[in-house]
Write a structure and sequence with these properties.
Blueprint: E1 5-9, H1 16-21, E2 27-31, H2 36-44, E3 51-56, H3 61-64, H4 69-72, E4 81-84, H5 94-99, E5 103-105, H6 112-127, H7 131-138, E6 156-160, H8 164-174, E7 179-183, H9 190-193, E8 197-198, H10 201-207, E9 210-213, H11 227-232, E10 237-241, H12 250-259, E11 262-267, H13 278-281, E12 286-288, H14 297-317
Parallel strand pairs: 1-2, 1-3, 3-4, 4-5, 6-7, 6-9, 7-8, 9-10, 10-11, 11-12
InterPro entries: D-isomer_2-hydroxyacid_DH, D-isomer_2_OHA_DH_cat_dom, D-isomer_DH_CS, D-isomer_DH_NAD-bd, NAD(P)-bd_dom_sf
Domain D-isomer specific 2-hydroxyacid dehydrogenase NAD-binding: 122-293
Organism: Cladophialophora chaetospira
């Protein structure tokens, strides 16, 4: 019996051995390095005919570019599963893939703890206005012009997007004595909600002392936080974003920081990465890191393993373990 064929796009950092072991039951093909045009050429020439599932690594965007209509249109007709490494998948055109019957998985679960950790780190840095003294001490100026910060205790942490990362963030924030409020498209069941308060979007904006963004980026959520939303927030609110930069209109955030409407911000993600809005770079009230949310050995390995598990479950059992939200309940998605 002929082995199913699977394709790896991009490199692997921690699971090359596990990938090679799949050769016992699959025919393995690879496109670890190359250009978008080379990949498209390989597709159109039939090099990947017969591929049932593909692993799209964290670094594969530099190899193939966006999984947009142009690229999806040349993928082999045999393909059924796109197993993506990353909690966010805004560089995949989900609608185009869904119309073609392609099932997509991402890596929620595996990223929850590390992303929540960096979120709390950024929140504390923003509350304490830590950037100024951190820079000052390295310049031999001790505290420099450091200002008094704020405690998290007693503050309301508003979580926009109470998925796995949002819930992991809430769990950590409770240890600091924070009150938890959240907004989702739909309210969570009680066992997941716990003591968190479910609010409408506008209520969350109005009541949060700290607003944490933990939702996916798509056409509906792009710039979900802009000037009109800042106007509805408390004076002196703190903004934390570990999800995607384009959830916030960065120029509007700069204006809100300059006016004092936003007291400070903790940011791990930016709209035009690796380029960062100048107004954010130059503002001492912005505590920033360069997209480090999942940058731990343990999390990176867990993500790679989860992608391989999705790939195997798709090929062997006909269903993905962690289908993306847009396809849950569709295309035989499970979990």
């Amino acid at each position: 019996m002929t082995k199913p064929t699977v394709l790896l796009i991009g490199g692997l950092a921690h699971t090359n051995k596990e990938w090679e072991q799949l050769g016992s039951k699959y025919n393995l093909k690879e496109f670890r390095k190359g250009t978008r045009q080379q990949f498209i050429s390989n597709c159109t020439s039939g090099q990947y005919d017969g591929v049932v599932a593909l692993y799209r690594s964290n670094t594969s965007l530099s190899e193939t570019g966006l999984f947009d209509e142009e690229l999806v249109s040349v993928l082999p007709k045999s393909l059924k599963y796109i197993c993506h490494n990353g909690a966010g998948y805004d560089n995949i055109d989900v609608d185009v893939c869904t119309r073609k019957g392609l099932k997509i998985s991402s890596t929620p679960i595996a990223v929850d703890d590390a992303t929540a950790d960096i979120g709390l780190f950024l929140m504390l840095g923003a509350l304490r206005l830590a950037w100024v003294p951190l820079v000052a001490i390295r310049e031999g100026k001790w505290k420099g012009k450091a200002e008094l910060g704020h405690d998290p205790k007693g503050k309301t942490l508003g979580i926009l997007g109470m998925g796995g990362i949002g819930r992991a963030t809430a769990h950590r924030a409770r240890a600091f004595g924070m009150k938890i409020a959240y907004h989702n498209r739909s309210r969570l069941p009680k066992e997941l909600e716990g003591d968190a308060t479910y609010l409408s979007f506008d209520e969350l904006l109005a009541q949060s002392d700290v607003l944490s963004l933990n939702l996916a980026l798509n056409s509906k959520t792009r710039h979900i936080i802009s000037a009109p939303e800042f106007a509805k927030m408390k004076d002196g609110v703190v903004i934390v974003n570990t999800a995607r930069g384009a959830l916030i209109n960065e120029k509007d955030l700069v204006a809100a920081l300059d006016s004092g409407k936003v007291a400070s911000a903790g940011l791990d993600v930016f709209e035009d990465e690796p380029k960062v809005e100048e107004g954010l770079l130059k503002n001492d009230k912005v505590f920033i890191v360069p997209h480090l949310g999942t940058s731990t050995y343990e999390t990176q390995k867990d993500m790679e393993l989860l992608v391989l598990q999705n790939l195997q479950n798709g090929v062997d059992k006909g269903a993905l373990l962690t289908p993306i939200a847009e396809q849950k309940g569709k295309l035989n998605g499970h979990l």
